[in-house]
Amino acid sequence: MDKDPFKEYIKQSEPNKRDKGYAWHTAIGLQAVDGLKTSKYLIDTAIKNIEGDISIDEAQELLNTYYEENPKADTEDRTEEADKVAVRIAKILSEKAFSFTPNEYISIHKKLFAGIYGHAGKLRDYNITKKEWVLNGATVLYGSASELRATLDYDFAEEKKFSYKNLSMEEIIHHLAIFISRLWQIHVFGEGNTRATAVFFIKYLRTLGFDVTNDIFAQNAWYFRNALVRANYNDLKNGVHETTEYLELFLRNLLLDEKNELHNRMMHISGRFAEVDIERVKVDIESGEVDIRNKLLSFSDTISEKTINHTVEIFSKRGKENCFGRTIVEEITGLKPSGASKLIKLLVDSEVIVPVTGHGKGKYRFQ
Questions:
Q1: Residues of the chain with CATH 1.10.3290.10
Q2: Would you say 41 and 51 are in contact if contact means Cβ atoms under 8 Å apart?
Q3: Which residues 6+ apart lie within 8 Å of 315 measured at CB?
Q4: What whole-number distance in Å separates Cα of residue 111 and Cα of residue 95?
Q5: What is the mean pLDDT of the chain?
Q6: How confident is the model at residue 274 (pLDDT cuts 50, 70, 90)?
Q7: Which residue intervals of the chain are DSSP H helices?
Q8: What is the pLDDT confidence band of residue 270, given thresholds at 50, 70 and 90?
Q9: For helices 305-318 and 278-299, what crossing angle results, to 10°?
Q10: Which residue spans of the chain are classified as CATH 1.10.10.10?
Q11: Which of 33, 94, 176, 353 has a beta carbon 3.0–4.6 Å from 347's, enabling a disulfide?
Q12: pLDDT per position as a tens digit, 84-141
């Protein structure tokens, strides 16, 4: 069988097969956020559903019967969980019904994990930490168990009040990245939080008019989770700032069909997986600082020392290899959006930085 049997279905011109193919492809791909893999039996069952041979309810029943007749002896084997949650995700994504409420979010978790987790659809009543590879073993600070419902209600109320009217796509995507990263960080559920959040988010995006029927979630579920982690972690003494830049790249691919490269290694806070020669970077930074100062002062002798220092600070964090946008400039310098935009314009005009393509709108790198 083809390694990825769903690729062709999501390219189908027939809407019914395309939508089913997308739902299954995403449902199976999302299991990767918890390191789970589905069985060949599930894939065969999914294809029967996509082809119209069986309904989604029949697919679910077949799966339940299969595991009743073939119970897993190994308690560490979570294939049954992956299969059952995948068919439930496919079912929810195939349904049109949706309401933007905390109860809908909680209900999705219950539908996905009933009979799998004892706490399905329940808010956790204990505090948690999770060691993250992308954070070199550190953890995000998750919501306090005593404040989960109040925090959840507040975030939903704020999003309901928010108006997307007259915003650019860049601003819309930035806001969506902040909303979903904050919702995820509350971590209202003990387990299955990312999968439930992803399903809820996809349904919400549809109410905002986005089609969301490509393979970005299916192919990059682990990247999505790591991007959520990086959006919620600070280690200021070591120069690590929470950032939605990675999440925004993911969303640009998802919503705008852009082709930004999504690499988990680029998000690791140590930087050691980015395949960069550290000693060479140090030399580049030292010579780059001199070059930046000379370029700016030759462009205008009225440029302040503060502006030069901001520029050098950005260069020391990003170098010549990594692109950046206004959000990163704000985070590194502490400038407000208008100030960051003015600095970027100055750096472009003075040819200190140049626009780059293939990484989303409004991205630049140092020359």
A1: 98-275
A2: no
A3: 285, 288, 289, 292, 366
A4: 13
A5: 89
A6: low
A7: 7-10, 15-29, 40-50, 56-69, 79-94, 102-113, 148-161, 169-186, 193-207, 216-219, 221-230, 245-256, 278-299, 305-318, 326-333, 337-349
A8: confident
A9: 150
A10: 278-366
A11: 353
A12: 999 999 999 999 999 999 999 999 999 999 999 999 999 999 999 998 988 989 999 9
Residues in the chain: 367
Q: Domain 278-366: give its CATH architecture.
A: Orthogonal Bundle (1.10)
Q: Is 323 exposed, middle or buried (0-12, 13-18, 19+ CB in 10 A)?
A: buried
Q: Which residues contact 218 (CB under 8 A, 6 or more apart)?
A: 6, 25, 26, 28, 29, 30
Domain 98-275, architecture per CATH: Orthogonal Bundle (1.10)
Task: Identify the three-state secondary structure at position 353.
Answer: strand
Portion of the chain with pLDDT greater than 90, in percent: 68
Spacing of C-alpha 164 from chain mean position:
20
Q: Give the tens place of pLDDT for each residue, 60-100.
A: 999 999 999 988 877 778 999 999 999 999 999 999 999 99
**The token pair that represents 91 in the structure block:** 């079912």
- Cα(296)–Cα(350) distance, integer angstroms: 6
Amino acid present at 139: T
Report the C-alpha gap between 102 and 158 in whole angstroms.
12
- Report phi then psi at 354, rounded to 5: -130, 150
Token look-up 């985070």 returns 331
Does residue 279 surpass a pLDDT of 50? no
